[in-house]
User: Fold these one by one.
Assistant:
Number 1:
Amino acid sequence: QVQLVQSGGGLVQPGGSLRLSCAASGNIFNIYDMGWYRQAPGKQLELVARITNGGNSNYDDSVKGRFTISRDNGKRSCILQMNSLRPEDTAVYYCKAEIRDLSYKVLETWGQGTLVTVSS
């Protein structure tokens, strides 16, 4: 069994910053791609940023230059640093990882979600 536990998020004013963290635990053999997704009220889930286990990353155009994704493979964690936040960034953010467990199955694993609200 593997799981992702998220932390961070909350309420911030426009222009502010927040940091989201995600840590994997359980019977893990390896972690491949990790990423952050978000779902705003009334909208579909969308990819925000993704990073490979080699450190290559890509971003949605709407967050390029403002958000930074990083990971620490030793700590099995992934960070999303969000700067210059805008009201349209308001959403529930989810961490996702592709994890190979000790039985060699590859599991698409999601965090529990965390609400980010950008408002004055």
Number 2:
Amino acid sequence: QVQLVESGGGLVQAGGSLRLSCAASGSILRINAMVWYRQAPGKQRELVARITSGGTITYADSVKGRFTISRDNGKNTVFLQMNGLKPEDTAVYYCNYNVLSPGRGPYDYWGRGTQVTVSS
């Protein structure tokens, strides 16, 4: 079993910055991908940023140039640096890891989410 815990959310004014973190613990052989999603009220969950074990990074068009995803492999932690925040970035942010564990094929784990609120 793998547990993900997000932190770093909060309330910020438009134009401000926040840094989200997601730390994994448990039985982990390899993390294939670390992904940040977000879900705003009344909207579907959407991919924000993704980083693979090979270092390939993708971003949603809406956050390119403002958000940066990075990782600390030694600590099984992924970060999302969010700059130039806009009210439309308001959402619950979730981390998702695709993990290979002993005796189990690749499996997706989710954190519980952290609220990001951007005021205008």
